[in-house]
Amino acid sequence: MAEKGVLYLVATPIGNMEDISLRALRVLKEVDLIAAEDTRRTLKLLNHYNIKKPLTSYFEYNKANKNNLVIGELLKGKNVALVSDAGSPGISDPGQELVKLAVENGITVTMVPGPVAAIAGLVLSGFPTDRFVFEGFLPSRKSLRKERILSLKRETRTVVIYEAPHKLVRTLKELFALLGERNIALARELTKKFEDIARCTLSGAIKKYENEAPRGEYVLVLEGASEKDIIMEAAEKWSSISIKEHVSNYMEQGLDKKEAMKKVAEERNISKREVYKILMQE
User: Fold this and answer.
1) What is the pLDDT of residues 68-122, one digit of tens each?
2) In terms of domains, do 217 and 148 share one?
3) Helix (H) or strand (E) holding 98
4) 48, 95, 158, 234: which could join 132 in a potential S-S bond, CB 3.0 to 4.6 Å?
C-alpha cells in the first residue's frame, strides 16, 4: 500500500505579490497537485514565480465532488497544496472541510503560514488586539443576520467582520441600528498601493459610504462593547422591577433561592452579596 501524501495549506498574498514566503514557493514547486479556490488568480501567482504544476479548482460550489478527488490523490501518495484566492486557506472558505476529511483519513496536514486579511485589519485598526472575535461574513438571511449581530451586543472583545462592497452600507446600517454607536475601522486594499484604513464611528461610516461608492473587499473592525455600557444596559433593563421581584420571578419559574439570586446578580451586574443584603432589608 502506497504511503499517504501530505496536504499543505499554503497562505498566498492578499494583494502584494511579494508577500509570499520562501517555504510557500518551495512547496508549490514540489507538490503533485494544487487545489485552488480561484484557478485564474492562482495561475497569475504561479506564472509570476515561474511555477508550473497541475491545478484543480476547489471552491464552495464544487467542494462536495472535489473533496473525493483531492482525498483520493492524497491516499495514493500524492502531495497536494490547498490555496484560497487570497490569504490563508480555511478562513472563510471551504478548506476547513477538506482538512476534516484528511484528518479522518489519517492524512498528514500541515500549514505554510502567511497573510490573513482579518489579522492585518485588526492590527491596523488601533483597537485592542489582545482579545478579539472573528465573525467572517455575516449570514445572508435577514433573520440570521439580525440574530448574529444581536449576539455581539454585549461582546467586549474587538469584532472582525468581512464584507463585500455592494453590501457594505446595508451592513453598517444594521450594525448601527442593533448595536448603537460604535467606533469602527474599515480596511480595504490591504498590502496594495492604495491601501486604505478609514477610522470613524458607525454613523460616520454610513455617511461616508452613502456618498462614496465602496470599492474592494472590506475588513470591518468593530470596537467591543464597553463594560460601562453593559452595566448601564442591565440597569435600564431591570429598573422597572425591584431586586426582590426579580428574585421572586425566577423562584416562581422553579429556581431555588440561591440559584435565583445568582442569576439576578449576573443580570444586574452586581454581586450576590449585594442581592442578599437588599433582600434582607426589604
Assistant:
1) 999 999 999 999 999 998 999 988 877 889 999 999 999 999 999 999 999 999 9
2) yes
3) helix 95-104
4) 158
Give residue for cell 432589608. Answer: 281
DSSP code of residue 140: S
Q: How far is 238 from 231, CA to CA, in rounded Å?
A: 11
| Res 64 pLDDT > 90 | no
Asked if 12 and 24 touch (Cβ cutoff 8 Å), the reply is yes
Q: Output b/e per residue, 86-100; b: 16+ Cβ within 10 A.
A: bbbbbbbbbbeebbe
How distant, in Å, are the alpha carbons of 242, 245, 262, 278 from that of 282?
10, 11, 18, 6
Q: 281 vs 259, which has greater pLDDT?
A: 259
Element (H, E) at 40: helix 39-48
Of 221, 19, 27, the C-alpha closest to 119 is: 221
- The three cell numbers of residue 121 are 485589519
CA dihedral 43, 110, 129, 230 (to 10 degrees): 110
Q: Which three cell numbers stand for residue 260?
A: 435565583
Shared domain check, 73 and 20: yes
For residue 107, being part of any structural domain is answered with yes
Domain membership of residue 202 (yes or no) is yes
C-alpha cell at 223: 470596537
Q: Beta strands of the chain (E only): which ranges?
A: 6-10, 33-36, 55-57, 80-83, 108-112, 132-137, 158-163, 183-188, 196-201, 218-222
Residues 168 and 130 in one domain: yes
Q: What is the pLDDT of residues 3-44, one digit of tens each?
A: 999 999 999 999 999 999 999 999 999 999 999 999 999 999
